[in-house]
Design brief:
Elements lengths: L3 E4 L7 H10 L2 E4 L3 E5 L10 E4 L2 H8 L11 E4 L2 H11 L5 E2 L4 H12 L4 E6 L15 E11 L10 E4 L2 H10 L6 E5 H10 L5 E3 L7
Parallel strand pairs: 1-2, 1-9, 4-5, 4-7, 5-6, 7-8, 9-10, 10-11
Antiparallel strand pairs: 3-8
Length: about 210
């Protein structure tokens, strides 16, 4: 097997990292194993907070609201990448940004939330980590996009693999094995998904040049 790498993300929007990987590996394959599609929601409830699990959640939610819907609401996101996207799209700073330790971040947000209400735009196949910590009367959870596995794709055999989400882990393992590969991932939840299949991996950050 040649010195090659697969990452479950399209890196055309990150040419600096893509170019670096091309200097390190003979071949770089980069595409998502998931297909995202907007799911329309008729009405979103008025709440004190809005919590976003992902960049896709931000994107598909913003496509369905009027700009003034965000007025007088506090905003929470998972990770600095989502915080940056939120600021780029709306000009607004996130009031809460989760850290790399997802479980402790969720608990910290629940403590911050106290008895306030929260709207949660999410994917169809969400793990609903926040909802599982809240009283059912405290939140409104809406599917704003689907995240199904890509159909009719072939995943190349590579010496190294970077998986970017738990859902991409499941999609990869439907097609390929991770045995005899160097495996890396984004975030603790993705590592947990890999560990559940008894696969060892190392967490790296997007854009990391040494791993």
């Amino acid at each position: 097997m040649t010195n090659s790498i697969f990452i479950s993300r399209d890196l055309n929007s990150d040419p600096i990292w893509l170019n670096h990987l091309r200097t390190k590996f003979e071949t770089v394959h980069h595409f998502s194993l998931l297909q995202f599609e907007k799911r329309a929601v008729n009405r979103f409830e008025e709440t004190d907070w809005i919590f976003f699990y992902s960049k896709q959640g931000i994107q598909f939610f913003l496509e369905q609201i009027e700009p003034n819907f965000l007025d007088n609401k506090k905003l929470a996101v998972m990770g600095p990448g989502s915080a940056q996207l939120l600021k780029t799209k709306t000009g607004l700073q996130a009031d809460f940004v989760a850290t790399k330790d997802i479980d402790s971040s969720i608990l910290s947000f629940v403590e911050l939330l106290n008895h306030s209400s929260v709207l949660i735009p999410r994917a169809l196949h969400s793990r609903k980590r926040l909802e599982n910590q809240l009283d059912k009367n405290q939140y409104f959870s809406h599917v704003v996009y689907t995240n199904e596995f890509q159909k009719n794709i072939e995943i190349p055999e590579t010496s190294h693999v970077i998986l970017t989400s738990p859902r991409n882990v499941e999609a990869y393992l439907q097609k390929n094995t991770l045995s005899d590969k160097s495996v890396f991932c984004f975030g603790q939840t993705t590592l947990d998904a890999l560990n559940s299949h008894k696969i060892k991996a190392k967490i790296i950050n997007p854009g990391q040049t040494e791993f």
